[in-house]
């Protein structure tokens, strides 16, 4: 089972609100379709927000910890993410991928500690029935805080753990985690080894950029890869492009 995240910064133009990077999205959809035709089974896709969702969340002061109890604000943020989800689904459907949406707002929640609870029975059943479930960064109900943002990266972690993913891939706008000289770090085994070079996202991003990604992936048993769009095909073919996060 593969969990693949298509970074919001890859499939959208992160500097312009609610703007797709149509070419990049089509390229990603091509790679997914080719991989499924080539024999990949059991693929779960998660996509991030990029220029959809982050701007809205930021405008309403909503983050993964700061929530809202304003339904209008919640619909604004969730609506931006479902709009992007429709675009992703349609590009996949056009290529014969049996992609269906799973909206985290209707499925998950956070407890008072902020820990995410995400049921995955629907995702497992969709996989078993031959679908490609497509989740996305979203809002979730948060005990004591209203509704807060859940990042695609958190969803990847929860899905990978629960569904015992064999492989995890984060396709981002960078070719991997970069060191001080902008060279791709091949392998990361401990957060302390790279904490100094990890920063936040260059664009409006309420969920933490690269540092949060690496921290989350280090908690998983399976190996994860962070790579750029040019390496998506290679990842889906079984290679380990970019940076491998290995906590074992
Ligand atoms: N050491 C680093 N190596 C690589 N990228 C880094 C590093 N430190 C900070 N970054 C930033 O992290 C960004 C990737 O995180 P970001 O959250 O924007 O990606 P994404 O998952 O593709 O998008 P989204 O969160 O919208 O889904 C890079 O574009 C870069 O600006
Ligand atoms: C900002 C929202 C609503 C979702 C963010 O998801 P991410 O881009 O994966 O961090």
TrEMBL record:
Name this polypeptide is given: Isopentenyl phosphate kinase
Gene3D superfamilies: Acetylglutamate kinase-like
Keyword Lipid biosynthesis: no
PANTHER family given in the database record: GLUTAMATE 5-KINASE, ISOPENTENYL PHOSPHATE KINASE
Enzyme Commission no: 2.7.4.26
Molecular function terms, GO-annotated: kinase activity
Name of the top EC class for this enzyme: transferase
One Pfam family it belongs to: AA_kinase
Superkingdom of origin organism: Archaea
Keywords: ATP-binding, Isoprene biosynthesis, Kinase, Nucleotide-binding, Transferase
Known catalytic reactions: isopentenyl phosphate + ATP = isopentenyl diphosphate + ADP
Signal sequence range: none
Biological function: Catalyzes the phosphorylation of isopentenyl phosphate (IP) to isopentenyl diphosphate (IPP). Functions in an alternate mevalonate (MVA) pathway leading to IPP, a key precursor for the biosynthesis of isoprenoid compounds such as archaeal membrane lipids.
Phylogenetic placement of the source organism: Archaea, Methanobacteriati, Methanobacteriota, Stenosarchaea group, Halobacteria
Family: Belongs to the isopentenyl phosphate kinase family.
